[in-house]
Amino acid sequence: MLVLRMLRGTLPNRGRDYNGLSHEPAGGMEEKGNRGVLQARDEEPAAPQQKAADSIAGIDHDHTLRKGEMSMNIKTTAFLFVIGIAVIMIAGADPSPAFAEQSGSISRHEALESRVQVLEDREEIRQLLMDYGRFLDQRDFGAFSGLFAKTEGEWIGGMGRAKGSQAIRELMESTIGKDTSIMQSCHLFTNETIHINGDQATALTKWIFVVPGESNRPQLVFLGHYEDSMIRENGRWRFLRRVVRADIPTDNQIKTK
Fold first, then answer.
1. Gap between the Cα atoms of 127 and 37, Å rounded
2. Using omega within 30 degrees of 0 as the cis cutoff, is the peptide bond preceding 212 cis?
3. How far apart are CA 84 and CA 73, in angstroms?
4. Are 37 and 44 in contact, with CB atoms under 8 Å apart?
5. How far apart are CA 147 and CA 141, in angstroms?
6. What is the structure's pLDDT at 220?
7. pTM reported for the whole predicted model
8. Would you call 183 exposed, middle or buried from its count of C-beta atoms within 10 A (0-12, 13-18, 19+)?
9. Residue 146 belongs to a domain with what CATH number?
């Protein structure tokens, strides 16, 4: 609005409506025509004799013409000045509100993506914990060892320790064996606590080891917990280090038997 007011103050009012039609009355048109005739007469070049007479009378036609040109130049300069001010005001408009709104939208979007990523990671880690027990009970130590980081994955428990997926597979096959017909055992997991930090995570999970008892009824043998460190490897969560602890009976009680 400020720019329009400034332009209105500089440009002549031609009295046109929204359709571009003139509002000038007929009399105004006639007067305008008369002014045009008078102006044309004023602008006619003076004859040499008239110039000489005017010179004696002290009338300078060249000065008058220069004065008119200067007046026109001043009006043109003023108009261009107003246009320049308007351009500067538009170009210098403060973009910070729009930028702040856009930045806020981006921040909210990134925060939402981060929260969704944590939920997806947590669910994948839970699946990793479940797959551990499932492959262990099935004696599928090829798939079991694939749950660990290929070179840095480490398993530590009552049967020993091994580092690297291939070494872990060999330890399980040499101690537990691959014969599924010997004993049907079952690992149950509960009370998992998972903490995620980017591409690394930690977890604490309770485990229960159950075997067939008298009359083929389930019999609880051990109660313990896992202490886990995990890492995202090639886009998938893997065990970086799993320590198996026995709570009832304790590790020391098991070793002394």
1. 97
2. no
3. 16
4. no
5. 10
6. 92
7. 0.59
8. exposed
9. 3.10.450.50
Q: What is the pLDDT of residue 185?
A: 85
Tell me the pLDDT tens digit for each residue of 126-146. Answer: 999 999 999 999 999 999 999
For residue 221, the enclosing domain spans: 123-256
Does 104 fall in a domain? Answer: no
Sheet bearing 186-197, strands edge to edge = 160-163, 154-157, 236-248, 218-233, 200-212, 186-197
**Residue carrying the six token digits 């320590």:** 243
- Residues 139, 219: Cα–Cα separation, whole Å: 20
What is the β-pairing status of strands 236-248 and 154-157? Answer: parallel
Q: How far apart are CA 207 and CA 137, in angstroms?
A: 13
Question: Are 133 and 239 spatial neighbours (Cβ–Cβ below 8 Å)?
Answer: no
Residue showing tokens 């209105």: 8
Tell me how many domains the chain contains: 1
Q: Enumerate the β-bridge partners of residue 231.
A: 200, 238
Residue type, 19: N
Instruction: Confirm whether 225 is domain-assigned.
Output: yes
**DSSP character for 91?**
H
